[in-house]
Specification:
The structure holds two protein chains of two kinds. Helix content of chain A is about 60%, strand content about 0%. Chain A starts with about 25 loop residues before the first helix and ends with a helix. The mean pLDDT of chain A is about 95. The radius of gyration of chain A is 26 Å and the shape is rod-shaped. Chain A contains two helices and no strands. Chain A is mostly helical. Chain B is mainly alpha-helical. Helices cover about 65% and strands about 0% of the residues of chain B. In chain B, helix 3 crosses helix 5, helix 11 crosses helix 13 and helix 14 packs antiparallel against helix 15. The radius of gyration of chain B is 23 Å and the shape is globular. Classes of the chains: A mainly alpha, B mainly alpha. Chains A and B meet through helix 1 and helix 2 of A and helix 3, helix 6, helix 16 and helix 17 of B.
Amino acid sequence: MSTTGVTSWAVDLAEVGPIYPFQGGETLFWVLGLAFWIGWHVWSIRWEKAYQKDRIAKYGDSDTLKKSLDLH
Amino acid sequence: MDTQLDAITTIFTEFYYWVTIPLMFLIHVGFCMYEVGASRRRNHMHTLMKNSMIIPLVTITFFFFGWWLYWALPNGPFITGGILWEDAAANAANSPTMGTNLDDRITGVFWAAFLLFSWTAASIVSGAVIERINSGAFWVLAVVIGSGAWIIDASWGWHPNGWMVQILGYHDAYASGVIHAIAGGFALGVLCVLGPRLGKFAADGTPRNILPHNPWMVAVGLFIIYTGFWGFYVACNIPIISPAEIDGVIVGTTWTATTIYLTPTSLSAITFNFLMSLSGGMLMAFAVSKGDAFWTYSGGLAGIICASAGNDLYHPIQAMFVGCIGAFVAYKMHHFVERRFKIDDAVGAVAVHGYAGFAGLVIAGFLLWGHPAGAYEGYASINPLGQFLGAIIMFGVLGFLPGWIVAKILHAFGLLRIPREIEIMGLDFQDMQMEREAEIEVRAAKRELV
């Protein structure tokens, strides 16, 4: 029993193909990967909006903005 | 790999492409340095992260679907046939060859060589839009160009059997159009929707200079891009292949290096021409910009980019003059478009990659007129009209249009541009304030010790 399908190297390598674990689950891995990728975009856009809102609340008044131009 | 020759050829090819990958990684390092150096101090960390996150996002999406697109779509929109499901199946994300597999030792290396081109395409766009685009919006655009638009264009025009090669006689050996014109066009499409940075243009429309916070960093960044470009050129070749394996019209048994189109060239040719076109570009840019460092380095890039379409075949002196033209076109067009259309391209990316790449394709149509575009019977020869149409497809159809459309959608949802207050204070304002306050506190503590 092995997650990779290889239990011994006493084999002819010409007959060995994939050796990653859980072969047969590739489509599931792909779907999970796609979900993770799209979820990351949604999270990053929301996070950035919240981050900017917070910065504007803290520093967005006219005086601070005017001062900011000379600060950095 | 059951014979020694087979094993040596396989391992040499694997290693050949593998070496190009860390070399091409330098292109991204260079782009990050260049872009951060060109931004103002108040924006530099956000600018760095905006570009750096191209790496993971384009990598995973290129694995999920980008690589499959290359193998599935050489026939274009049903021009020379349909979708190549069978050819593409082995390159789909759920194929057993896209993993640790003793029966397939090259796919991952070949995939990565293409992937690094994908990063470059997205990174070119990144520099143009600095200091006012939302990072989240940019990352969506980066996936569209890096794992979508560019790889579709590669499938059409940078594949031995791409429909543009077969019908138009399209030739673009080192990607004047396939990477550079498309990325420049895409950046222009985004810039048209995004608008200029605050203060870039006076009320009467005169452009103001927004200077880089660190010109030295910009220069070193461009030098590093030159270095990485070597890997890019080498990765565009097939290092060694026999006529039998090409299975086209070449006869005899002489093995050769070829372009991606399986047409013969040599490492010697591209070494000559890379350096001569770089030199032509730098010399012209220095002259036309009156010694401006930023434009001299950028002109070197524009020179290589302009000559790249035909650098597999040009004589080195031809490559030098084509490089001169690329730098001249980039410099003049950048300033003309900036003044005339109020386009704020912060690093000249549209000019150096887009206009120089476009010009390079057209020039190759004349200089290589009649040379076979492919290694197979019945394919068109290289010709000016085919190259011009190819340049329009690369810059306009697969570059400008997707960039403009996706930017419009992001803009409609209020996601494209950062709020005005953030742009005024700078993206890194809070971090810089905290740094400043911490420094004041430390200085006060030191004063008590004096």
